[in-house]
Amino acid sequence: REGSVTKPSTLHHVEVDTEMDLCSICLDDIVDPIQLPCGHEYCTHCIQALRGFSGVQQCCPLCRATLPPGPDQLFDEAVRRYVKIERQHSKGAFSWGDLDQHCRVISHCQSQSVMNELKRELQTVYDMYNESASQGHAGAQCNLGFLYEVGRGIEQSDQKAIELYEKA
Which residues in the chain are classed under CATH 3.30.40.10? Predict the structure, then answer.
């Protein structure tokens, strides 16, 4: 597998119990809580700050489970993968919307399995942009809006594109 970022594992924003839990990073009441895949909850800004420190192991402070990739990592990896797909697409002289139809006719498509792999990779890009956008990354929101606007690998939706552009 290429790159250091794999399929995104989601962080969940959660509601804190009435007995205000303490964040084990800042030792204060949890503000804008986020739950890691391991189940531990922290302030969103504390996790963002933890990710910002170079040299600090990217893991849960309590159980040492590896943190899922953050919005910046997801965005960077999605852009890298999308550029790779775009380069392959630009060599093929077929449109995104007609990918299946042209694959049957154009000699550039050596096999259906190659095209299926490109579609899977594009789905991974979409998933990474979506996860990064859900964590508030403006660039991911904009790029995801573009994918919806032009229908690249997903069903075209001007409404979803506008919503994402407004968030960005």
Answer: 1-68
Superfamily (CATH) of domain 1-68: Zinc/RING finger domain, C3HC4 (zinc finger) (3.30.40.10)
Q: What is the pLDDT along the chain (168 residues), one digit of tens a residue?
A: 444 444 445 555 555 454 458 999 999 999 989 888 899 999 989 988 888 887 777 889 899 998 888 888 999 999 999 998 888 777 764 456 545 444 444 445 555 666 777 778 888 999 999 999 988 899 999 999 998 998 877 888 889 988 888 887
**Structure token digits, residue 14:** 């959660």
pTM tops 0.70? no
What's the gap between Cα 148 and its chain centre? 15
Say which DSSP state 56 is in. S
Q: Nearest 5°: phi and psi at 165?
A: -65, -40
Instruction: Give the whole-angstrom CA distance, residue 124 versus residue 140.
Output: 13
Tokens 């990064």 belong to which residue?
A: 132
